[in-house]
Each structure stands twice: as C-alpha cells, then as structure tokens.
Automatic annotation (TrEMBL):
Positions that bind S-adenosyl-L-methionine: 56, 81, 105, 155
GO cellular component: nucleus
A Pfam entry, by short name: Methyltransf_10
GO molecular function, one term: methyltransferase activity
InterPro entries found in the cross-reference section: METTL16/PsiM (IPR017182), METTL16/RlmF (IPR010286), SAM-dependent_MTases_sf (IPR029063)
One BP term from GO: rRNA base methylation
Protein name: S-adenosyl-L-methionine dependent methyltransferase
PANTHER family listed in its UniProt record: RNA N6-ADENOSINE-METHYLTRANSFERASE METTL16, SAM-DEPENDENT METHYLTRANSFERASE
Family: Belongs to the methyltransferase superfamily. METTL16/RlmF family.
Keywords, ordered alphabetically: Methyltransferase, S-adenosyl-L-methionine, Transferase
C-alpha cells in the first residue's frame, strides 16, 4: 500500500467504534466479533438491543475472577433477562466448558431468538432457557428446587419511562441514540434499574444461600447510592462494587452474598477516592514493613503464625509481577491461613494459660469449625510515582477470605503484623 495511506496499518475496529458510536450499534460488528473471536454465531433482530461485546465480556471476566477458586466440574449461574442474543451464557460457556446457565426472558420475540442462538451454537446442553413473566419472581429458583447456584447476573432494563429514554437519546444517560434501537420491554421497567435490582435484593433475602453470589450490572452511576443504602437497610453487609470501563463508556456492577465468603478488594471495591462512602469496608489490609529482607520477614511471619495453636497455614513461594495503578509490585509469598478460634486476643492468651477455664468438650467443638480464612501476601512495591527517587519496600497484604466476624479478622491481622514487625525489624 502507498506509504502515505493511513490504512496501511488496518484500523482498530473497537477504537473506531468508540470514536464513531453509530458503528457500535451495528449488529454486524457484534456478530463479526463473536464469530471471529469466540466462534459464536448469533442473529440479532433489527428491533432488539445489540450488545457490545467488550462490555459484556468485562462482566463475564469479573465473574470468572470471583469464581476462580471454585472447585468441581460445574459452575452454575442464572442470567436474568438474557435478551435476543443470549450473549452472557453464550460467551461464558464458550470461554469455560464447566459453566452452566439458566437464562430467563419475558419477551416472546427475544425468547424465541435466544433459543435459536443457543441451538445454533450447540449449547442447549449447557444453557436452559426459561420463559418468565413480568410479575413473576425474577429468580427461577422454584423451578429447580434441588439446585444451588454459584451466581446470578443481570443487565436490567434501565429506564423508568419512554420519556426518560427520549431524554437520554442525546447520549447523556447511556449509549447514544443509534445504539438504543431496542424494544421498550428491553429498556423500560417501572422504577428503572434501581427498582429492578431492589426486587432482586428482596427475593435474595428469601433464597439466601441457594446462590453464592447475586450480581447485577448498572447503567447509571446514580443508581448505586440507592442500592447500597437498600443493602445496608437490609443488613446485607457482604457486598461489593466494581466498574467496567470500555473506551468512553463506564458501567458498574453490584454483588452481594449471604455466605461467609469475602471478596478481595480488587474485585469488590473501586479505588476512586470520591466514591469511597459507597464502598464496603476493606477486606484487604496493607501493612508496610521496616525490613527489606524477604527471608527475615517470611520467617517472622511464619513464626508468629506457628505460635498460634488454633491456626494452620500453608506458605507458597511465588514470583509474579502485578500492576497496581502506577506502581509495579512483585508478589513473593502467598500464605493461606485458617483459624478454628481466636487464640490471639489477650483474653484468649490468658485463657490458654489456664486451660481449666474452658471445658474440654467446648474446646473440641470449637476446634472442628473454621471461623476465619484469610491469606497473607508478601509483596515488594516499587513506588514509581516519584521516578527520580524510586523507593522499594516490603508490604504484607492480608485478605479476608471467609468468616462472619470482621473484628476477628482485624484483630488477627493486627496481632500477626505487630509480632512480625517486632521480630523482623533490623
Ligand atoms: C437491557 S436488556 C439486556 C439483554 C442482554 N442480557 C444483554 O445484556 O444484552 C434487558 C432484558 O431483560 C428482559 N426482561 C425485562 N424484565 C424481565 C423480567 N421480569 N424477567 C426476565 N427478563 C426480563 C428484557 O426483555 C430484556 O431482554
């Protein structure tokens, strides 16, 4: 090609679509990306929403990260309002053959089209489509009385009314007009997305641990505050928030659970300082250490853990570079820890000196139950924001993984960190 021809290097179609939104609305672009990159064949009718692949993929990848430690040969999820494309189940099942879906849809045309898309990709053994009704339950648990699920997901209809759709057509609220060629049933629901998600929260209070993680995407940042307040009112403290950023488009997702499993902060908190009031308390606590000697610090930590009789731990040596905003970190040691009771508080240590204080049987019962699981990661941080004066240091990140009692985790971390700092300081 001619040297001055700018198309000598073919344009990046996704960047182009970001700069020229009408392209995003192009069904052929979605169909082509799904075919080329995932071997998925879909047909999306012209009068139904066309899902942008990068955004939908972001949601699936986040769920994959959350479920990455799930054992077993199946991961079972529910997609509420799967749409004509059935994009979430198709993508997820193509990416990992262990995934299974129940997908719901109220709109007849989208239901029929989703059924055909699932069949065309030979995924009918992995994805079960359920015809829902607008006034019926959002979660189809009653149809699967013996099943438990790993997650629910949803991209809810987000507008409250036709007037709101029209008001947003200039692109202020969501995607530009060209993209919003969906049917009303896809885009409008009484009370908008916030009311839809609140319905899910209400239903989840009944179904509780039938599902490990309840999640939903949110198209409007303004929905977040009301939903967090609703979770707080209902005393659902185990929740998280993330954001999906693709070019100029930003979306959010909320996640909550009634189980003891806790999310690491990188999956359940957004770092943006202006919205910290909406974030759940931190599950990852960072402690800088004065020593720069890795073996000293590792030995000090292991010694502090070995001195706690209710604690078992498994250290793992790793060498993995991880990027954290502007800083680079080297993950060096990963220690998995379980505790069967509190043996680190002052009261617990006093009791241990006087074993008659606790009856034998109570001790045995306690010892058989894990009350807290967490991980300690030793990392080497390079503070690169001041490049002239690079500062290296060792830190330990303590991440709460399981338990009901946040105070127990906090007191464990402060005990172990204090002991390790005293023993490793040079
Ligand atoms: C914004 S679209 C999302 C479609 C698809 N999941 C996606 O991300 O492209 C919302 C979908 O939810 C469906 N829907 C609306 N109310 C529903 C309900 N009560 N139960 C199940 N689906 C519903 C709509 O018909 C529509 O297909």
């Amino acid at each position: 090609m001619h040297v001055r021809n700018p198309y000598r290097n073919p344009p990046d179609i996704l960047l182009l679509a970001d700069a020229y939104p009408a392209l995003k609305a192009c069904r052929r672009l979605t169909e082509a990306l799904l075919k080329r990159d995932f071997n998925i064949t879909v047909q999306i009718p012209d009068d139904r929403l066309c899902p942008p692949v990068p955004n939908r993929l972001n949601y699936i990848l986040w769920l994959q990260d959350i479920l990455s430690e799930t054992l077993g040969d199946q991961i079972r999820g529910i997609d509420i309002g799967t749409g004509a494309s059935a994009i979430y189940p198709l993508l997820a099942c193509r990416l990992d053959s262990r995934w299974r879906f129940v997908a719901t849809e109220i709109d007849e045309k989208s239901y029929t089209c989703a059924l055909s898309n699932i069949g065309q990709n030979n995924l009918q053994g992995h994805i079960e489509l359920v015809r829902a009704t607008p006034d019926g339950p959002l979660f189809p648990f009653s149809l699967f009385p013996d099943a438990t699920f790993d997650f629910t997901m949803c991209n809810p209809p987000f507008y409250t009314s036709k007037a709101e759709v029209e008001a947003s057509a200039d692109g202020k609220l969501r995607e530009p007009k060209a993209v919003c060629t969906g049917a009303e049933v896809e885009m409008i629901t009484p009370g908008g997305e916030a009311a839809f998600v609140k319905r899910m929260i209400d239903e989840s209070l009944d179904s509780q641990e039938r599902c490990r993680w309840y999640t939903s995407m949110l198209g409007k940042f303004s929905s977040l505050a009301g939903i967090v307040e609703y979770l707080n009112q209902r005393e659902i403290s185990n929740y998280g928030i993330t954001e999906f950023v693709q070019g100029q488009t930003r979306r959010w997702a909320i996640i909550w659970s009634f189980t003891k499993t806790r999310l690491p902060d990188y999956l359940g908190r957004i770092r943006n300082p202006t919205i910290q009031h909406l974030m759940p308390p931190r599950n990852t606590l960072r402690q800088p250490f004065s020593t720069t000697n890795l073996s000293r610090l590792t030995a000090a930590l292991e010694n502090a853990l070995a001195n706690l009789d209710s604690v078992t731990f498994a250290p793992n040596t790793v060498q993995q570079t991880v990027a954290v905003s502007d800083d680079e970190e080297l993950l060096l040691t990963d220690i998995l820890i379980s505790a069967t009771r509190n043996s680190w508080s002052r009261a617990a240590r006093r009791k241990a000196k006087n074993p008659n204080a606790a009856s034998q049987s109570a001790m045995e019962i306690e010892a058989s139950t894990v009350v807290m699981r967490c991980r300690l990661q030793i990392r080497r941080v390079v503070h690169s924001h001041d490049r002239a004066d690079k500062q290296e240091g060792l830190v330990v990140d303590a991440s709460w993984m399981e338990g009901q009692d946040r105070a127990l985790f906090d007191s464990f971390v402060s005990h172990v960190m204090r002991k390790a700092e005293m023993a490793s300081a040079e």
